[in-house]
Structure formats: structure tokens, C-alpha cells
Design a protein that fits this description.
alpha/beta, 2-enoyl-CoA Hydratase, Chain A, domain 1, three-stranded mixed β-sheet, globular
Length: 268
């Protein structure tokens, strides 16, 4: 099989596509991958690339440097002076737009967390469908320590992942979690050694990129809306989902592969 690679270098991140896998790497290591206006724009632009490319069947988000992201770039924030409120509306529009795009795609989002994930870095890290952390990773909200409140989808995902009481502990008391604590709490999917982090994340993302993409997308939508529906409504959506998938090429392939005792070959 011939591997095709596409690379786009943004000012604050790198986008690489290899076959059906897109990899987005935060690339401000000297500024702790802090979220400034340009990074917000770049993440949104990279998310749009993923949205517009139907050939992408999995996405891996990672970071260069010693930490995943320290959150908002406070030096950049200070430069706006009295215009900071308006700037933060613009910045969150970009970041939140990207998170919405990733959540709406059939392609699963795998996130590899190295070192500290604080503030918006924490929010972004746990927005993935599957999250792998290095053993030295740490997680802290830190917003209220600045007199701010969370952004980046934290107030949506955290209560759903870990419950209200633990979310309050993180957001109000700014408790810092180690990688092992984050795993125990249900914030991350897996913890591996720092040396194995990228290889493990890439192996997982690559496997997902050859999987039943429409089935993954249906699972994502079912779980995203489960708290909004009654049991009868959710059962109706489940019935519609499995019925529709049974008519797809991948659904037919999965069934035939099982019956013939062979490994399925999904085309997404």
C-alpha cells in the first residue's frame, strides 16, 4: 500500500495527514503551548481541514515540547489591556468552533497528553473521544486562581465524565491531578510511560483510521446526546442507528467477516 502524506505548517501548530489519519501537533513549546489568538485561529483552521476532507477517518492531537499546554497565554492576554474581554470572545469563538467540529465528525479524536495540561489545555485534552496520557502528565483547571471561569468545553465534558462534585473540586478548589489520578477519576482512557506515549497514541489512532468510521460517528452522537433524551427517545435513536449502519458497506462487511471467521476490511 502506498502511503500519501500531506503537511500544513501553521504559525502555532503542524498538520500532517498520512493515508486516513490526520495528526495535529501544538507547536509553541517555548511558550508552553500557551493558547494565544493565533493558536485559536490555527486550531480552528486545522479542524476545518479535517471537516472538509472525507478521507480522514481518525484524528490525533498531540503537542511538541515538555508540556501539552499551560492554557491561555497570559502575556498575550495582558497585551490587549482594556480590549481583553472582546479578545477573549474572539479567541473562544475559534477554540470552541474547533471543538464543535471535532465532536461532530465521524472520525474519532485521540489526544496524547504529555506533561502539564492546565486551563484551556486541560479543557482541550479531555474533549477527545479517547485520551492517552504519559505517566508524568498532570491536570489542573487553574482558572479561578486568576479570577476567571473555565472555557474550552470543560463545563460540558467534566460533569459528564466525572460527575458534579469532582468537577467542583477541580474548578473551584483547583485541585491538581496526576496522570494516575486522572485515570482513576475517569478523565483519561489510558496511562503509559512517557517514552511510549506517542507510539501508543499513534498506534491507536492508526487502528481507528482503518475502522468502521460511520459506526464510530453514530456512537459519538448517541453518547453526546444521551443526557438530553428520555429512555424511549434514546432507544429510538439506537434502533435508527443500528438499522442504518446495517445497510452500509462496512456494516455488511462486518457481518460477513464474522460469519466467515475472518478479519473485516472496513472502508469508512
Amino acid at each position: 500500500m502506498t502511503t500519501t502524506t500531506e503537511t500544513i505548517t501553521y504559525e502555532t501548530l503542524i498538520y500532517e495527514k498520512s493515508d486516513h489519519l490526520a495528526k495535529i501537533t501544538l507547536n509553541r513549546p517555548d511558550q508552553a503551548n500557551g493558547m494565544n489568538m493565533q493558536m485559536g485561529k490555527d486550531i480552528y483552521a486545522a479542524a476545518q481541514v479535517c471537516q472538509q476532507d472525507s478521507d480522514i477517518r481518525a484524528i490525533l492531537l498531540a503537542a511538541n515540547g515538555k508540556m501539552f499546554s499551560a492554557g491561555g497565554d497570559l502575556n498575550d492576554f495582558a497585551s490587549y489591556n482594556e480590549r481583553l474581554p472582546e479578545a477573549l470572545i474572539e479567541l473562544t469563538d475559534y477554540l470552541h468552533g474547533a471543538i464543535e467540529i471535532f465532536a461532530g465528525l465521524d472520525a474519532p479524536l485521540v489526544i496524547a497528553v504529555n506533561g502539564a495540561a492546565a486551563g484551556a489545555g486541560f479543557s482541550l485534552a479531555v474533549s477527545g473521544d479517547l485520551v492517552i496520557a504519559g505517566e508524568s502528565a498532570s491536570f489542573t483547571m487553574a482558572y479561578t486562581a486568576l479570577g476567571f471561569s473555565p472555557d474550552g468545553s470543560a463545563s460540558y465534558y467534566l460533569p459528564r465524565l466525572i460527575g458534579l462534585r469532582k468537577t467542583q473540586e477541580l474548578m473551584i478548589n483547583n485541585r491538581k491531578l496526576s496522570a494516575s489520578e486522572a485515570l482513576d477519576w475517569g478523565l483519561v482512557t489510558q496511562v503509559v510511560s512517557d517514552e511510549e506515549l506517542m507510539a501508543s497514541a499513534e498506534k491507536l489512532a492508526t487502528r481507528l483510521s482503518t475502522g468502521p468510521t460511520k459506526a464510530f460517528g453514530t456512537v459519538k452522537r448517541l453518547l453526546a446526546h444521551t443526557y438530553d433524551h428520555t429512555l424511549p427517545q434514546q432507544l429510538q435513536l439506537e434502533a435508527k442507528g443500528i438499522s442504518g449502519l446495517s445497510a452500509t458497506d462496512d456494516g455488511k462487511e462486518g457481518l460477513q467477516a464474522f460469519l466467515n471467521k475472518r478479519k473485516p476490511e472496513f472502508n469508512g
